[in-house]
Amino acid sequence: MTIKRPRGTNDFLPGETVRWQDLENKLHRLCRQYGFEEIRTPIFEETELFARGVGNTSDIVQKEMYVFQDMGGRSLALRPEGTASVARAYLENKMQALNQPVKLYYLGPMFRSERPQAGRYHQFHQFGLEIFGSNSYLADAEVICFAWDFYTSLGLNELDLHLNSVGCPKCRPLYRQSLQEFLAPQKEQLCTTCRERFERNPLRILDCKSPICRELSVGAPVMLDQVCPECEEHFRKVRNTIDEAGIPYILDDRLVRGLDYYTKTAFEIQIKGIGAQSAVCGGGRYDGLIEEFGGPAIPGVGFALGLERIFLALESQGIGFEKEPQLDIFIATMGEAACGKAFTLAQELRQKNLSVQQDLLGKSLKSQLKSADKQGARFVIIIGEDELQSGLYQVRDMAESFQELVPDEDLLSFFCDKLGK
Ligand code: HAM
Fold it and tell me: Looking at ligand 1, which residue's alpha carbon is closest to its atom 14?
């Protein structure tokens, strides 16, 4: 029996990986413009990090993590998200001693054992960023603007920014209680998941997709009506700044997010037309996370986006990708001696920053030319016995269907001129 890739994972083949690189390069560039620096953390962490960070009551920790034991009996987990790891790394590497705020970003695979469907995978890829050390509303607004800027720069439409405040440890317990009181008489009618959530995480009942739970929660108390004056003031300033930046948003009192660390601002961007998994990014403020890990009271705010869902959105909106020509020069050879010459020449041309390939299969000249054409080569150099003796090489311009003889000693300057290197 042949072995297949695990369920919920993907192979990205060369035609797709160029698109991934393109998107990643755009993100690296935007990070430079906004002053974020890259951080790389391990793919797995101690399970405890996510239990404490993402939260024991969250679905992610309760049922979606890939947990395993190492040889020493330690419990480890494949990272389901990046924020907890980056907060741990900030603290462990004493980044609080650096000039604040510290602005970090990351890109890489995350793992969640959710039921796979379009846009939802067991291994998926996130780009995320975090700002540590600023409790200013401007940091929240900057993070939201970054996300909005990125999606619009890709030409995506039909974006909905959902915004809410989930309060803080001062005001949320009171809200939680009033929500439980409201839902208590109907508790038995809630879906199985929400019946469990009733005690451990009643706010999540608000964003349950089940029509019955949605119906039962109509008229429930609204968090924004009950936030403390500090949270209210903060949220008002975030909204004003987003308004001034000209970014439209939907005030969404059902947006509670699936991770327990959030305080104050919570947001998501959703895109229509990519199916049930329409959230292309999500984030918010998490002022208690560093303390939860045993550090000082350092506030944080950030977001993460799923790269697979961007590709789905680009495809559903018919946004193409301009593929750059892959190959500058193909060297076609006839005979053993020509192969040796081609090998040396290819190395010299690559030193000049040109992309060069030669035949590695001993194909006929005709097949080599076909192959060069398939690879989109801009030029072909033909080397055979005659060329080696005369020191003059046939160079074919594939775009212009033009051929000329170039002396050996002029080859490098010829291509540097033609290809602008
Ligand atoms: P999240 O909302 O759980 O937030 O994930 C962020 C994004 O990752 C989602 O909006 C979605 O695009 C993508 N995503 C999540 N799960 C999957 C999946 N199974 N398959 C494909 N894509 C997925 C976080 O992870 C927070 N750490 C964000 C954050 C950063 N908050 C503050 N800083």
Answer: 306
282 CA → ligand 1 middle, Å: 6
Q: What's the CA-to-centroid distance between 81 and ligand 1, angstroms?
A: 7
pLDDT, tens only, 240-287 = 999 999 999 999 999 999 899 999 999 999 999 998 899 999 999 999
Which pLDDT value is given to residue 363? 96
303 lines ligand 1 (CB under 6 A): yes
pLDDT digits (tens, 9 = 90+) for 311-366: 999 999 999 887 776 799 999 999 999 999 999 999 999 999 999 999 999 999 99
Q: Is 147 in the pocket of ligand 1 (CB under 6 A)?
A: no
What does the pLDDT look like over 346-356, one tens digit per residue?
999 999 999 99
pLDDT band with cut points at 50, 70 and 90 for residue 225: very high
The finding on whether 280 has its CB within 6 A of some atom of ligand 1 is yes
Query: Is the bond into 248 cis (omega within 30 degrees of 0)?
Result: no
**Protein residue closest via CA to atom 18 of ligand 1:** 120
Single-letter code of the amino acid located at 189: Q
- CB of 120 within 6 A of ligand 1: the answer is yes
Other CB atoms within 10 Å distance of the CB of residue 145:
17
Total residues found in the chain within this entry: 421
- Rounded CA separation 206/220 (Å): 9
Q: How far is the CA of 315 from the centre of ligand 1 (A)?
A: 20
Nearest Cα to 166, choosing from 220, 232, 248? 232
Ligand 1 pocket check: which of 114, 126, 310 to mutate, most ligand atoms within 8 Å of Cβ? Answer: 126
